[in-house]
Amino acid sequence: MINEEIKSKALFVANKIEQDFRGLNGLELEEFFNKFKEDKRTISFLEYYNKSVLDKERIDFGEFKRQWAIQGMTKQVFNFFTANFDRLKEEIQGGKNIRAFFEKYCCEVRKEASFCSKLFHTILPDEFPPVDNPIKKKFNLQNEEFINSVLIIKEGYNLFIKENKDKINLIRNTLLKPKFAYLRINELSDIRILDMYYWFKENRESE
User: Counting beta carbons within 10 angstroms of the beta carbon of residue 17, is it exposed (0 to 12), middle (13 to 18) or buried (19 or more)?
Assistant: First the structure.
């Protein structure tokens, strides 16, 4: 059950996305994504993303921490997740409750909310966006508790997608061109396509 505060803030997120996409056309999108095709760091991460998210290869959490640039996660924590991955994956898939999982496994040593968000996305990529601080800032959620931010952005994305299938298809059709084959767009959910646009926009374009 989504509470009223999350619903209200999610509506703000959806409206902000609507503003960002107003007037955006296929040529502008193509030029935007063209900027990243030769960036080695971006391509390296996307190769890991495809391996772990789309191909569902077993996660080594030392590599997971490095690839997602998660700061401060201790060896004790990522060794625990590596050793118990199959059981924890089943728990995530069965419950789909990021707050309960976070409070059970990600608070004792260090509050690894960003890690938790990216893990839920890896296992449930059609349902949970991999939220980070630049995305939080984009939607004026800097002061929001992290897991709340995940739930707000998840709901905001879903609200936008429900009312703007044409804009999602604009991104999808642009990225179906052969030069963007490395993105494997046909294997991505609508929520990932929208999140990917903002990942490039907030984490790569500003660098």
Answer: buried
What residues have CB less than 8 Å from 109, skipping those under 6 apart?
A: 74, 76, 77
The residue to which tokens 């800097």 are assigned: 142
The rounded radius of gyration (Å) of the Cα atoms in the chain is 17
Higher pLDDT, 2 or 156: 156
Total number of domains in the chain: 1
pLDDT tens digits, 85-129? 999 999 999 999 999 999 999 876 666 899 999 999 999 999 999
Query: Between vectors from CA 56 to CA 82 and to CA 119, what angle results, nearest 5°?
Result: 50
Q: Which domain holds residue 111?
A: 4-204
Q: What is the pTM of this model?
A: 0.92
Nearest 5 degrees, angle CA 112-CA 58-CA 80? 40
Helix residue spans in the chain (DSSP H) = 4-21, 26-34, 40-49, 61-67, 75-83, 85-95, 98-105, 113-123, 133-138, 146-163, 165-175, 190-199
